[in-house]
Specification:
- Its EC number is 2.7.10.1.
- It is found in: Membrane.
- GO terms for molecular function: ATP binding; fibroblast growth factor binding; fibroblast growth factor receptor activity.
- It comes from Molossus molossus (Pallas' mastiff bat).
- The chain is mainly beta.
- It is elongated and about 80 Å long.
- The protein has a domain of 71 residues: Sandwich (Immunoglobulin-like), CATH 2.60.40.10.
- The two termini are 44 Å apart.
- It has no helices and 9 strands.
């Protein structure tokens, strides 16, 4: 079934038979209705970190979204001694850009009923 709607809720039965007999299995379909909303970040992530010089650091961002999110990692930088432009927009460098595809992105697994649970790790240098 593609693009289910609320009226598709209900029981569905598969009946299989041959000359030796007949079997049937009934399944229930429930259709969840959702309101579009902005992505939700898992509380506490990513967390601030302090690292020893030369060590590896990873930040993880877990996102709950009913639609496919676009994920970016940005590093705030200074340009000519300033952190923001004349219009107040912060200066940033894009470190990683991606669109989470399917149920897996960087090792976090999707949970049906919560939309896609996605993780995007800051890339290693």
């Amino acid at each position: 079934m593609e693009s289910v709607v609320p009226s598709d809720r209900g029981n569905y039965t598969c009946v299989v038979q041959n000359k030796f007999g007949r079997i049937r299995q009934t399944y229930t379909l429930d259709v969840l209705e959702r309101s579009p909303h902005r992505p939700i970040l898992q509380a506490g992530l990513p967390a601030n970190q302090t690292a020893v010089l030369g060590s590896d650091v990873e930040f993880h961002c877990k996102v709950y979204s009913d639609v496919q999110p676009h994920i970016q990692w940005l590093k705030h930088v200074e340009v000519n001694g300033s952190k923001v432009g004349s219009d107040g927009t912060p200066y940033v460098t894009v470190l990683k850009v991606g669109t989470a595809l399917g149920w897996r992105e960087q090792g976090w697994l999707g949970i049906p009923g919560w939309g896609a649970l996605l993780g995007a790790a800051l890339p290693r240098r």
